[in-house]
Amino acid sequence: MTRVEMVETERITLDKENPRIKHFMEIHDEITEAGMRLALGAGGDSEDEVTAQDKYRQLRRAIKETGGVVQPIILKEQGEGSYLCVEGNTRVAIYRELAREDTQGGWEKILAIVHDEMDEQRAHEIRLQVHLVGPRSWPAYAKAKYLSELWEQDQMPMAEIIRVCGGTQQQVEREIKAYGDMERFYRPVAEADGFEMFDYSRFSAFRELQNVKEGLYGADKDERHFAQWIHAGLFQPQNTVRALPEILADAEATKVFLKEGAKEAIKHLDAGQQESESDSPVRDATIEELATALRRRINRLSFDESQEIATSPGSPVMVELDAVRESIDTLVATTSTDEE
Protein backbone atom coordinates (compact mmCIF):
# COMPACT_ATOMS: atom_id res chain seq x y z
CA MET A 1 0.00 0.00 0.00
CA THR A 2 1.11 3.56 -0.69
CA ARG A 3 -0.02 6.92 0.61
CA VAL A 4 0.88 10.55 0.07
CA GLU A 5 1.63 12.62 3.14
CA MET A 6 3.91 15.24 4.68
CA VAL A 7 6.79 13.54 6.51
CA GLU A 8 9.23 15.07 8.99
CA THR A 9 12.63 15.18 7.34
CA GLU A 10 14.39 14.27 10.59
CA ARG A 11 12.63 10.91 10.50
CA ILE A 12 14.08 10.17 7.06
CA THR A 13 17.29 8.20 6.54
CA LEU A 14 19.20 8.98 3.37
CA ASP A 15 19.73 6.02 1.07
CA LYS A 16 23.24 4.61 1.43
CA GLU A 17 22.73 2.75 -1.86
CA ASN A 18 22.53 6.06 -3.69
CA PRO A 19 25.75 5.92 -5.79
CA ARG A 20 26.87 9.42 -4.83
CA ILE A 21 26.54 8.69 -1.11
CA LYS A 22 27.91 5.16 -1.45
CA HIS A 23 31.02 6.40 -3.21
CA PHE A 24 31.58 9.07 -0.55
CA MET A 25 31.30 6.41 2.16
CA GLU A 26 33.96 4.31 0.41
CA ILE A 27 36.40 7.22 0.67
CA HIS A 28 35.58 8.36 4.23
CA ASP A 29 35.37 6.12 7.27
CA GLU A 30 32.43 8.07 8.66
CA ILE A 31 29.98 10.15 6.69
CA THR A 32 28.43 13.19 8.34
CA GLU A 33 25.39 15.20 7.34
CA ALA A 34 27.74 17.73 5.74
CA GLY A 35 29.49 14.90 3.92
CA MET A 36 26.21 13.63 2.56
CA ARG A 37 25.34 17.09 1.28
CA LEU A 38 28.74 17.26 -0.39
CA ALA A 39 28.22 13.85 -1.94
CA LEU A 40 24.79 14.80 -3.25
CA GLY A 41 25.58 18.38 -4.15
CA ALA A 42 29.12 18.24 -5.48
CA GLY A 43 28.88 14.71 -6.83
CA GLY A 44 32.47 13.63 -6.13
CA ASP A 45 32.40 11.07 -8.92
CA SER A 46 30.78 13.44 -11.39
CA GLU A 47 32.39 14.03 -14.75
CA ASP A 48 31.79 17.75 -14.19
CA GLU A 49 31.82 18.75 -10.53
CA VAL A 50 31.08 22.39 -11.30
CA THR A 51 27.96 21.36 -13.21
CA ALA A 52 26.88 19.12 -10.34
CA GLN A 53 27.32 21.95 -7.83
CA ASP A 54 25.35 24.27 -10.10
CA LYS A 55 22.51 21.77 -10.34
CA TYR A 56 22.38 21.47 -6.56
CA ARG A 57 22.27 25.24 -6.15
CA GLN A 58 19.65 25.61 -8.88
CA LEU A 59 17.44 22.96 -7.26
CA ARG A 60 17.88 24.59 -3.86
CA ARG A 61 16.94 27.99 -5.29
CA ALA A 62 13.90 26.56 -7.08
CA ILE A 63 12.64 24.78 -3.95
CA LYS A 64 13.16 27.90 -1.85
CA GLU A 65 11.44 30.20 -4.34
CA THR A 66 8.42 27.93 -4.91
CA GLY A 67 8.06 27.13 -1.22
CA GLY A 68 8.61 23.40 -1.53
CA VAL A 69 8.94 20.43 -3.86
CA VAL A 70 6.53 19.88 -6.71
CA GLN A 71 7.26 16.18 -7.14
CA PRO A 72 6.97 14.01 -4.01
CA ILE A 73 9.97 12.03 -2.84
CA ILE A 74 9.64 8.25 -2.45
CA LEU A 75 10.01 6.67 0.98
CA LYS A 76 10.00 3.17 2.38
CA GLU A 77 8.43 2.88 5.82
CA GLN A 78 10.82 1.16 8.23
CA GLY A 79 8.68 1.07 11.34
CA GLU A 80 8.66 3.09 14.55
CA GLY A 81 8.11 6.30 12.61
CA SER A 82 11.27 6.07 10.49
CA TYR A 83 11.62 6.06 6.71
CA LEU A 84 14.25 5.24 4.08
CA CYS A 85 14.55 7.71 1.21
CA VAL A 86 14.64 5.59 -1.95
CA GLU A 87 14.29 8.58 -4.26
CA GLY A 88 14.71 12.25 -3.39
CA ASN A 89 17.84 12.25 -1.21
CA THR A 90 19.02 15.60 -2.58
CA ARG A 91 15.68 17.24 -1.88
CA VAL A 92 15.68 15.92 1.69
CA ALA A 93 19.21 17.29 2.20
CA ILE A 94 18.12 20.69 0.89
CA TYR A 95 15.08 20.77 3.19
CA ARG A 96 17.29 20.01 6.19
CA GLU A 97 19.76 22.67 5.12
CA LEU A 98 17.01 25.29 4.79
CA ALA A 99 15.56 24.30 8.17
CA ARG A 100 18.95 24.64 9.90
CA GLU A 101 19.39 28.08 8.37
CA ASP A 102 15.97 29.12 9.76
CA THR A 103 14.86 30.01 6.25
CA GLN A 104 11.35 31.38 6.19
CA GLY A 105 8.85 28.67 5.24
CA GLY A 106 7.99 25.21 6.44
CA TRP A 107 11.02 23.02 5.86
CA GLU A 108 10.51 20.52 8.68
CA LYS A 109 8.21 18.33 6.58
CA ILE A 110 8.38 17.24 2.94
CA LEU A 111 5.78 15.86 0.55
CA ALA A 112 6.32 12.11 0.08
CA ILE A 113 4.88 8.96 -1.41
CA VAL A 114 5.23 6.40 1.36
CA HIS A 115 5.38 2.67 0.67
CA ASP A 116 4.59 0.58 3.70
CA GLU A 117 5.99 -2.46 1.88
CA MET A 118 8.84 -2.38 -0.61
CA ASP A 119 11.32 -5.16 -1.29
CA GLU A 120 14.84 -4.53 -2.55
CA GLN A 121 13.84 -5.51 -6.08
CA ARG A 122 11.26 -2.71 -6.20
CA ALA A 123 13.75 -0.25 -4.68
CA HIS A 124 16.24 -1.13 -7.42
CA GLU A 125 13.56 -0.59 -10.05
CA ILE A 126 12.77 2.88 -8.73
CA ARG A 127 16.44 3.90 -8.67
CA LEU A 128 16.93 2.60 -12.20
CA GLN A 129 13.83 4.25 -13.60
CA VAL A 130 14.59 7.65 -12.10
CA HIS A 131 18.35 7.87 -12.51
CA LEU A 132 19.17 5.71 -15.53
CA VAL A 133 16.30 6.70 -17.79
CA GLY A 134 14.77 9.63 -15.90
CA PRO A 135 15.61 13.34 -15.74
CA ARG A 136 17.91 13.23 -12.68
CA SER A 137 20.80 11.19 -13.98
CA TRP A 138 23.78 9.82 -12.09
CA PRO A 139 27.32 10.28 -13.43
CA ALA A 140 28.33 7.69 -16.03
CA TYR A 141 30.69 5.86 -13.66
CA ALA A 142 28.02 5.65 -10.95
CA LYS A 143 25.46 4.28 -13.40
CA ALA A 144 27.85 1.58 -14.61
CA LYS A 145 28.80 0.68 -11.05
CA TYR A 146 25.17 0.30 -10.06
CA LEU A 147 24.44 -1.88 -13.10
CA SER A 148 27.48 -4.01 -12.30
CA GLU A 149 26.33 -4.53 -8.71
CA LEU A 150 22.83 -5.47 -9.84
CA TRP A 151 24.24 -8.01 -12.29
CA GLU A 152 27.16 -9.48 -10.34
CA GLN A 153 26.24 -9.03 -6.67
CA ASP A 154 22.45 -9.04 -6.63
CA GLN A 155 22.34 -11.38 -9.64
CA MET A 156 19.40 -9.54 -11.14
CA PRO A 157 18.55 -11.19 -14.48
CA MET A 158 19.76 -9.24 -17.51
CA ALA A 159 16.27 -9.26 -18.96
CA GLU A 160 14.97 -7.56 -15.80
CA ILE A 161 17.68 -4.88 -15.89
CA ILE A 162 16.89 -4.15 -19.53
CA ARG A 163 13.15 -4.11 -18.85
CA VAL A 164 13.57 -1.43 -16.22
CA CYS A 165 16.39 0.74 -17.57
CA GLY A 166 15.84 0.26 -21.31
CA GLY A 167 18.50 -0.10 -23.96
CA THR A 168 19.85 -3.32 -25.36
CA GLN A 169 21.73 -6.17 -23.79
CA GLN A 170 24.83 -5.13 -25.73
CA GLN A 171 24.66 -1.60 -24.29
CA VAL A 172 24.19 -2.78 -20.71
CA GLU A 173 26.94 -5.36 -21.03
CA ARG A 174 29.27 -2.70 -22.43
CA GLU A 175 28.68 -0.50 -19.38
CA ILE A 176 29.35 -3.40 -17.02
CA LYS A 177 32.50 -4.47 -18.88
CA ALA A 178 33.79 -0.89 -18.99
CA TYR A 179 33.29 -0.56 -15.23
CA GLY A 180 35.05 -3.90 -14.68
CA ASP A 181 38.03 -2.90 -16.82
CA MET A 182 38.34 0.44 -15.06
CA GLU A 183 38.32 -1.18 -11.62
CA ARG A 184 40.61 -4.07 -12.51
CA PHE A 185 43.24 -2.25 -14.55
CA TYR A 186 43.07 1.49 -13.91
CA ARG A 187 42.41 1.61 -10.17
CA PRO A 188 45.67 -0.19 -9.19
CA VAL A 189 47.71 2.10 -11.44
CA ALA A 190 46.07 5.30 -10.18
CA GLU A 191 46.03 4.36 -6.51
CA ALA A 192 49.71 3.52 -6.62
CA ASP A 193 50.10 7.32 -6.69
CA GLY A 194 47.52 7.82 -3.94
CA PHE A 195 43.81 7.15 -3.65
CA GLU A 196 42.87 10.60 -4.91
CA MET A 197 44.54 9.88 -8.27
CA PHE A 198 41.70 7.54 -9.29
CA ASP A 199 39.77 9.79 -11.67
CA TYR A 200 36.14 8.69 -12.06
CA SER A 201 35.62 11.06 -14.97
CA ARG A 202 37.82 8.81 -17.11
CA PHE A 203 35.09 6.19 -17.30
CA SER A 204 34.08 7.28 -20.80
CA ALA A 205 37.52 6.25 -22.06
CA PHE A 206 36.95 2.72 -20.78
CA ARG A 207 33.56 2.71 -22.44
CA GLU A 208 35.28 3.62 -25.72
CA LEU A 209 37.85 0.90 -25.06
CA GLN A 210 35.19 -1.78 -25.48
CA ASN A 211 34.99 -0.92 -29.19
CA VAL A 212 38.72 -0.92 -29.93
CA LYS A 213 40.03 -3.93 -28.04
CA GLU A 214 40.75 -5.91 -31.20
CA GLY A 215 43.03 -3.13 -32.41
CA LEU A 216 44.69 -3.00 -28.99
CA TYR A 217 45.35 -6.74 -28.92
CA GLY A 218 46.46 -6.69 -32.55
CA ALA A 219 49.30 -4.37 -31.59
CA ASP A 220 50.39 -6.75 -28.79
CA LYS A 221 48.99 -4.42 -26.13
CA ASP A 222 46.35 -5.04 -23.51
CA GLU A 223 44.19 -3.32 -20.88
CA ARG A 224 47.18 -2.79 -18.59
CA HIS A 225 48.92 -0.70 -21.23
CA PHE A 226 45.69 1.20 -21.81
CA ALA A 227 45.37 1.97 -18.09
CA GLN A 228 48.91 3.34 -18.04
CA TRP A 229 48.13 5.56 -21.02
CA ILE A 230 44.96 6.81 -19.36
CA HIS A 231 46.84 7.61 -16.17
CA ALA A 232 49.50 9.46 -18.18
CA GLY A 233 46.78 11.63 -19.75
CA LEU A 234 47.46 10.54 -23.33
CA PHE A 235 43.78 10.64 -24.33
CA GLN A 236 42.67 14.26 -24.31
CA PRO A 237 39.81 14.46 -25.13
CA GLN A 238 38.76 10.96 -24.20
CA ASN A 239 36.93 10.24 -27.46
CA THR A 240 40.36 10.08 -29.12
CA VAL A 241 40.41 6.49 -27.82
CA ARG A 242 38.43 5.66 -30.96
CA ALA A 243 41.49 6.32 -33.09
CA LEU A 244 43.68 3.94 -31.06
CA PRO A 245 43.67 1.02 -33.58
CA GLU A 246 44.68 3.36 -36.39
CA ILE A 247 47.36 4.97 -34.24
CA LEU A 248 48.85 1.65 -33.13
CA ALA A 249 48.87 0.37 -36.71
CA ASP A 250 51.22 3.21 -37.71
CA ALA A 251 54.72 3.11 -36.22
CA GLU A 252 55.33 6.86 -36.49
CA ALA A 253 51.90 7.72 -35.12
CA THR A 254 52.53 5.38 -32.20
CA LYS A 255 55.75 7.21 -31.36
CA VAL A 256 53.93 10.55 -31.45
CA PHE A 257 51.13 9.11 -29.29
CA LEU A 258 53.46 7.82 -26.58
CA LYS A 259 55.31 11.13 -26.47
CA GLU A 260 52.58 13.73 -27.04
CA GLY A 261 49.23 11.95 -26.79
CA ALA A 262 46.44 10.75 -29.05
CA LYS A 263 45.42 14.20 -30.29
CA GLU A 264 48.85 14.87 -31.81
CA ALA A 265 49.02 11.33 -33.18
CA ILE A 266 45.72 11.89 -34.97
CA LYS A 267 47.10 15.09 -36.49
CA HIS A 268 50.06 13.07 -37.76
CA LEU A 269 47.72 10.52 -39.31
CA ASP A 270 45.52 13.22 -40.83
CA ALA A 271 48.54 14.89 -42.43
CA GLY A 272 49.54 11.62 -44.02
CA GLN A 273 45.97 10.97 -45.13
CA GLN A 274 45.72 14.36 -46.80
CA GLU A 275 48.87 13.64 -48.77
CA SER A 276 47.56 10.26 -49.91
CA GLU A 277 44.20 11.81 -50.85
CA SER A 278 45.62 14.78 -52.71
CA ASP A 279 44.19 13.48 -55.99
CA SER A 280 41.10 11.84 -54.48
CA PRO A 281 37.63 13.14 -55.38
CA VAL A 282 36.71 12.75 -51.71
CA ARG A 283 38.99 15.60 -50.67
CA ASP A 284 36.94 18.35 -52.32
CA ALA A 285 33.52 16.76 -51.85
CA THR A 286 30.88 18.69 -49.91
CA ILE A 287 29.28 17.34 -46.73
CA GLU A 288 26.06 16.78 -48.68
CA GLU A 289 27.87 14.79 -51.36
CA LEU A 290 29.69 12.69 -48.77
CA ALA A 291 26.49 12.05 -46.80
CA THR A 292 24.62 11.05 -49.95
CA ALA A 293 27.39 8.71 -51.05
CA LEU A 294 27.60 7.05 -47.61
CA ARG A 295 23.82 6.60 -47.41
CA ARG A 296 23.65 5.05 -50.87
CA ARG A 297 26.58 2.73 -50.17
CA ILE A 298 25.02 1.52 -46.92
CA ASN A 299 21.72 0.91 -48.68
CA ARG A 300 23.53 -1.26 -51.22
CA LEU A 301 25.11 -3.52 -48.60
CA SER A 302 24.19 -7.16 -48.94
CA PHE A 303 22.71 -9.02 -45.99
CA ASP A 304 25.99 -10.86 -45.39
CA GLU A 305 27.97 -7.60 -45.46
CA SER A 306 25.54 -5.99 -43.02
CA GLN A 307 25.76 -8.93 -40.64
CA GLU A 308 29.54 -8.99 -40.75
CA ILE A 309 29.72 -5.30 -39.85
CA ALA A 310 27.00 -5.48 -37.19
CA THR A 311 28.63 -8.44 -35.41
CA SER A 312 32.11 -6.88 -35.31
CA PRO A 313 31.80 -3.91 -32.92
CA GLY A 314 35.56 -3.50 -32.63
CA SER A 315 36.29 -3.59 -36.36
CA PRO A 316 37.72 -0.49 -38.11
CA VAL A 317 34.46 -0.11 -40.06
CA MET A 318 32.30 -0.04 -36.93
CA VAL A 319 34.70 2.26 -35.12
CA GLU A 320 34.51 4.73 -38.02
CA LEU A 321 30.72 4.40 -38.31
CA ASP A 322 30.32 5.02 -34.58
CA ALA A 323 32.55 8.09 -34.86
CA VAL A 324 30.53 9.38 -37.84
CA ARG A 325 27.25 8.81 -36.00
CA GLU A 326 28.45 10.71 -32.92
CA SER A 327 29.78 13.56 -35.07
CA ILE A 328 26.42 13.82 -36.80
CA ASP A 329 24.56 13.70 -33.47
CA THR A 330 26.80 16.47 -32.13
CA LEU A 331 26.25 18.57 -35.25
CA VAL A 332 22.46 18.14 -35.07
CA ALA A 333 22.41 18.91 -31.32
CA THR A 334 24.49 22.05 -31.88
CA THR A 335 22.17 23.19 -34.66
CA SER A 336 19.10 22.57 -32.49
CA THR A 337 20.62 24.55 -29.62
CA ASP A 338 21.42 27.47 -31.93
CA GLU A 339 17.85 27.52 -33.25
CA GLU A 340 16.41 27.63 -29.74
Number of strands: 5
State the distance separating the first and last CA atoms. 44 Å
Number of helices: 17
Major sheet size, sense and barrel closure? 5 strands, mixed
> What is the mean pLDDT?
79
Gross geometry:
elongated
Structural class: alpha/beta
Q: What fraction strand? A: 5-15%
Identify the strand order in the major beta sheet.
1-5-3-4-2
Helical residue percent? 55-70%
User: Uncertain regions: pLDDT < 50 for 5+ in a row?
Assistant: 42-50, 336-340
Question: Using only CA atoms, what is the Rg?
Answer: 24 Å
Order of helices and strands: EEHHHEEHEHHHHHHHHHHHHH
What does this structure look like?
The structure is a single chain. The chain has 340 residues and is an alpha/beta fold. Helix content is 59%, strand content 9%. The chain is built from 17 helices and five strands. Strands 1-5-3-4-2 form a five-stranded mixed beta sheet. Helix 2 (33-41) packs across helix 4 and helix 3 packs across helix 4 (89-100). The two termini are 44 Å apart. Mean pLDDT is 79; it is low at 42-50 and 336-340.
TL;DR?
The chain has 17 helices and 5 strands. It has 340 residues and is of the alpha/beta class. Strands 1-5-3-4-2 form a 5-stranded mixed beta sheet.
